[in-house]
From TrEMBL:
Gene: LOC107584123
Assigned keywords, A-Z: Chaperone, Membrane, Mitochondrion, Mitochondrion inner membrane, Transit peptide
Organism, as annotated: Sinocyclocheilus grahami
Protein name (database record): ATP synthase mitochondrial F1 complex assembly factor 2
Membrane topology: Peripheral membrane protein
One GO-annotated biological process of the protein: mitochondrial proton-transporting ATP synthase complex assembly
């Protein structure tokens, strides 16, 4: 079923809903416990679909809401799930609309990122998120180079060096690479440049960027993706260069490799989309999507 009447704005909806609940009479854990155990960790679970229609509406302050039938979607922490622009609302609503008989929450990456941005379950500040992102430079995927075998050494040089050259020129920084297990010594000037750049992101965009960095285990590749220097496929392949080399040499369990690859692409693409949509200040043209 395609998304019906997705831009039919209506403020007359009933109570909100989040698909994780506790049986009546059962002790309800503290908020922090619920967020960590019953909600975010439960993203791997599935549940029978309990709604037919998905739509979006514009509520107070111009924020957009997602509606499952006539119930407003809420975060695991009990907050109304609201987003700042229509484009992101449509993307999140589409995740719910494409679900079949069983809801696969682990496939709903944009919804998860919205929940994380709204609930901030670990109560981190923007500065803490930036510091965590910068720590990836110390062990960045493309900063650490092997000394053997020769084939992998050449592959890393041919594939990673152009990206390293690009980011050093793009941001006027020095990063370098190293074969030491300690990684390269990153100049403080480079860290400060990246810190200032990361600080230019709003909290939501930074949440998405951090998600991408975690998937690729690389700040360099993440910047390349967000700046549209790399495609999702390129960024993912470069982050798995050594694994792909080993697979070419020794083979693999095909379905396992393919599943992991597609999952990584999906998560990375969702994170990158979230960054861009969270930065979007203009609403997309209103229209109704029909079956």
């Amino acid at each position: 079923m395609m998304l019906r009447n997705i831009c039919r704005y209506n403020r007359q909806f009933g109570q909100g809903i989040w698909p994780f609940s506790f049986p009546q009479g059962q002790h309800v854990p503290s908020l922090s416990t619920r967020l960590q155990k019953a909600s975010y960790a439960s993203a791997t679970k599935e549940r029978k679909k309990f709604y037919e229609n998905v739509s979006i509406s514009q509520g107070e302050g111009g924020l957009y809401e997602i509606n499952l039938d006539k119930r407003k979607l809420k975060t695991p922490g009990g907050k109304l799930l609201t987003v700042s622009n229509e484009a992101l609302a449509i993307a999140v609503a589409t995740e719910w609309d494409v679900q079949k008989d069983t809801l696969k929450f682990y496939t709903m990456h944009l919804t998860t990122l919205c929940n994380t941005a709204l609930d901030n379950p670990t109560q981190r500040t923007k500065d803490q998120m930036i510091s965590a992102a910068l720590k990836f430079l110390e062990t960045d995927t493309i900063c650490y180079r092997v000394e053997e075998p020769p084939g992998l050494v050449e592959l890393q040089r041919n594939e990673w060096d152009p990206v390293m050259n690009w980011i050093e020129q793009r941001y006027n920084v020095v990063i370098g690479s190293s074969t030491s297990i300690m990684g390269p010594q990153i100049p403080e000037e480079t860290k400060e440049t990246f810190r200032q750049h990361l600080n230019s992101y709003n909290f939501w965009s930074l949440t998405g960027l951090e998600y991408v960095i975690t998937q690729l285990k690389s700040l360099v590749l993440s910047f390349g993706l967000i700046d549209r220097h790399l495609s999702v496929e390129q960024a993912v392949l470069l982050s798995r260069l050594e694994e792909e080399y080993q697979i070419q040499q020794w083979g693999n369990v095909e379905w396992v490799h393919d599943y992991d690859l597609y999952e990584l692409r999906a998560r990375t693409a969702a994170g990158a989309m979230f960054v861009h949509l969270s930065s979007e200040s203009t609403a997309v043209k209103r229209k109704i999507l029909q079956d």
